[in-house]
Amino acid sequence: MKRNKLAAWRRVFGLIFFGLLLLSFADFTGFLPTWFIRWAGYFQFVPSLLKFLHAPSLLAIGFLLILFITWIWGRVYCSWICPLGVLQDIVARLKILKKKRSRAYGLLPSFKILRYSVLILVVAGLLSGLMQPLMYTDPYSLFGRMIHQLVFPLFLFLNNYLSGYLSGLEIYFLKPFPVTGFQPASLAFSVTLLALLIFLSVRYGRIYCTAWCPVGSFLGFVSKFSIYKIRISKESCTSCGRCAKSCKAGCIDYHNKEVDFERCVGCFNCLNSCPTGGIHFQKTFRTHSLNFSPERRHHLWLLTAAGTGLLLKPKVIWAEELQKALVPAPRLNPVTPPGSISTERFNDICTACHLCISACPTRVLSPSLTEYGWRGLFQPMMDYHTSFCNYECTRCGEVCPTGAILPLLPEEKKLTQLGVAAFQKLNCVVYTEETACGACSEHCPTKAVHMVPYKEGLLIPKVNEAICIGCGACEYACPTLPHKAIYVKAHTIHQKAQKPEESDTSKEEVPEEFPF
Amino acid sequence: MERRNFLKNLALGTLAGSLASRIPGAFASDTHASEPFVGDADLVAIKGGEPEQMFDKAIEALGGLKRFVKKGQKVVVKPNIGWDVPPERAANTHPGLIGHIVKRCLEAGAAEVFVFDNTCDNWLKCYNTSGIEEAVKKAGGKIVPGNEERLYKPVSISGRVLKNASVHELILSCDVFINVPILKHHSSADVSIAMKNLMGIVWDRRWWHRNNLHQCIADFAGFRKPDLNVIDAYRVMIKNGPRGVSEADVKIMKSMIVSTDIVAADAAATKLMGNEPAQIGHIRLAHEMKIGNMDLSSLKIQRITV
Fold first, then answer.
1. Alpha carbon separation from A504 to A82, B191, B232, B250, B253 (Å, rounded)
2. In this complex, do A506 and B235 lie within 8 Å of one another by their Cβ atoms?
3. Strands B43-47 and B250-259, how do they pair?
4. Integer CA distances (angstroms), A126 to A212, A311, A371, B66, B176, in order
5. CA-based nearest residue to B16, from B70, B71, B73, B66
6. Which runs of E-coded beta strand occur in B173-270?
7. What is the CA radius of gyration of chain B?
8. How far is CA B188 from CA A47, A390, A453, A459, B247, in A?
9. Contact by Cβ (8 Å): B230, B247
10. Is the dihedral of CA A51, A214, A337, A317 positive or negative?
11. Does B166 touch chain A (CB under 8 A)?
12. Looking at the complex, does the CB of residue A102 fall below 8 Å from at least one CB of chain B?
């Protein structure tokens, strides 16, 4: 019997997508160009969908291609593209864990109610601007967070250990990178999730994907109408059950010779498991033409269009709110990254995948805990006690796959005011010690923080808010303890700063005579 | 330290003797020394040329680089690479000058030449944007990280305020330490020149800022005096220092100060910027502590115009 090559191709594709994203999330060197990272995540369903909704462009139609593919072949996304799916497949193949599996896979309950409840919750959350359900179920974001929290530091520590060892021998080939920006709670979340996934995938197969994952459920729904489907031929099937044992999704009912294609993750392992060649991946319109109804197709399109319209609605509401420019800041907000436009918008779109945190070269982006309130748990924020935002850098917006952080040109970024520096004189060294300091002003890229005469021979910092962009350099540099004498008061809606006085010419003035 | 100085003086004496007859002739051809050549200058001030050219002439006037760098020695060249800005902004030492010094040290027989700084902006960006990483690699030197605490070893300092510091291991292990700051305005220390540049070889600078910055700078200047201070005053940031905002902050002065006396070098450079050395806290304190001499009138100064 000719072996079907689909399962082999699935492995190739799966490993490519998995590898690309693994690299993107684990690159602690900032070596990967942002176009690479952008394309690595192009086909990821949730980020692409969010980006399309919030910043529509041709660069954000990956999810439409996925829908199209799903319409033709079913939810192959889950085994060919989804990094969390591939991760589960890899884990289940590991020899050490394989031994622990007491039995082969088999038919699983369909968990229809659970699966659709999660999906409905996620969609309802999206419509009402609540990201929470999506943030903790979207496979891409879960994967990203896991890699950032587990693999990224592993590589980083390994690199720094080696680099430290080599520098002892005066070999400075490996560069050390700062170890900052980790968040214990986010780490704990990822460790727990990974353990759970390992257990589930080894024991039951892809039960996360078929019983819980909202992307899987949605694509599964679409795959009900797909052109190609897995079918068991009633004539050749001997009900030996081998296909069911090979099915990670647990969706083959060999007694009744039926496949619940809605749950099929497109791994195609079953095709080569059948001794009689009785299981096929075939066009369904020809063999089951009765199922096709033009009328139903028309209704489906209407439904899809209406759904898309609904999803687009919140964006319009948000735009109106922004124009009112109301700044409700009853409490201290965390500073959001440049390109996120407003705290609310950011909270509404970010899935906390941690890609920007991995990509940030200064490590100023850190996962939050309760700074945004529980609603924004693990969403990144600017941590000015760890580092500060590089004046020229626009990397976070370039890599953000959801559009939560929009890409900015360097010229725009340099005028984007995330907040303004607030000087607390009572903490300042110049005031308390009456000795010179101006670390804040030293680091300020626009000289919004400048020094003005204070007492005899002393200068003291002063802030020109109009040209401050809230990069946090002053706050980071301020040496006072335990509290800083200067900090960035976050804007809940980013403002436009004025340009600092600039000109591109230097005067040439070689001294006639030396003044000594 | 004393033996080093003794050896240095010994070498200086012999070299000065052997070179004194040769150098003036060499100079007459292409420079217009504004004063007769003396050969044992405490400080060389030079202007009007390109940084590389001015360095060669100034070093020649001090007796040649071989006076400072011997065969097989380990050299550290310490520029200012503090900021993620291009060379035109004059926040970092001229990259061409650094590359050139590295090259000259290797020619003089140095076994290895290391270059690093504990930067303020992200170090990889600073090394790259300043052009210094590329220049050092091209010249055959080694550009080394300065951003990791483990690279710094604790030492005790016999200062008035500063008693401890963590210093980059290469500074502690090198034979020759060449300090190559850029002259610029500074919001905390008034000016940033040779003494201030040494803040880039220590780890916890915040402590200095909290505990009388000027005194700490002066205290540390006596710990490991550079064997040579080369002050890049080709482009000089006259305001908005030390990072600067635009090229309008920069005056092209095409000058350089070279001296073994870090205080004298800072004093001369301060005057070049139009300030009085005695008005600058750390210079005045270092002079008082006899780390060096800021009284330029008592020094032998070689002035060269290219």
1. 49, 23, 21, 10, 17
2. yes
3. antiparallel
4. 17, 8, 21, 72, 64
5. B66
6. 176-180, 182-186, 190-192, 228-237, 250-259
7. 18
8. 46, 21, 12, 8, 21
9. no
10. positive
11. no
12. no
Q: Which chain B residues are within 8 Å of A451, Cβ to Cβ?
A: 187
CB atoms within 10 A of CB A219: 27
Q: What is the DSSP letter of A342?
A: B
| Cα–Cα distance for residue pair A404/A348, rounded to 1 Å | 8
DSSP state letter for B115: E
Q: Cα-flanking dihedrals φ and ψ of residue A205, to 5°?
A: 90, -145
Distance between CA atoms of residues A100 and B226, nearest Å? 65
Residues in A touching B58 (Cβ below 8 Å): none
Polymer length of chain B? 306
Structural tokens at position B155: 């030492």
Chain B CB within 8 Å of residue A157 CB: no
Q: Which residue of B has its CA nearest to A508?
A: B252
Question: How many DSSP H helices and E strands does chain B contain?
Answer: 12, 13
Whole domain around residue B22: which residue ranges?
Answer: 2-305
Vertex B266, ends A457 and B27: CA angle to 5°? 150
| All domains of chain A in start order, with CATH | 6-291 (no CATH), 414-499 (3.30.70.20)
- Tell me the C-alpha distance between A452 and B212, whole Å: 18
The ipTM assigned to this model is 0.86
CA-based nearest distance B89→chain A, Å: 9
Q: Is B186 on the interface with A (CB under 8 A)?
A: yes
- Which residue out of B188, B258, B296 would a mutagenesis test of the A interface target, given it has the greatest number of A Cβ atoms within 10 Å? B188
- Residue B235 has a CB neighbour count (10 Å cut-off) of 26
pLDDT in tens, A451-508: 999 988 899 999 999 999 999 999 999 998 888 889 999 999 999 999 987 777 888 9
Give the C-alpha separation, A369 to A357, whole Å.
Answer: 14
Q: What are A275-325's pLDDT values in tens digits?
A: 888 898 988 765 444 455 555 566 666 566 555 544 444 333 333 333 322
**What is the domain count for chain B?**
1
Are B124 and A511 a contacting pair at CB < 8 A?
no
pLDDT at A494: 96
Instruction: Specify whether the backbone of B46 is left (phi greater than 0), alpha (psi in -120 to 50) or beta.
Output: beta
In the DSSP assignment, the letter for residue A498 is P
- Residues of chain B with pLDDT > 90: what percent? 84
pLDDT digits 0-9 by tens, A137-156: 999 999 999 999 999 999 99
Looking up residue B149, the CATH number of its domain turns out to be: 3.40.50.11440
B84 interfacial to chain A (CB closer than 8 Å): yes
Which residues are CB-neighbours of A33 under 8 A, at least 6 positions away?
none
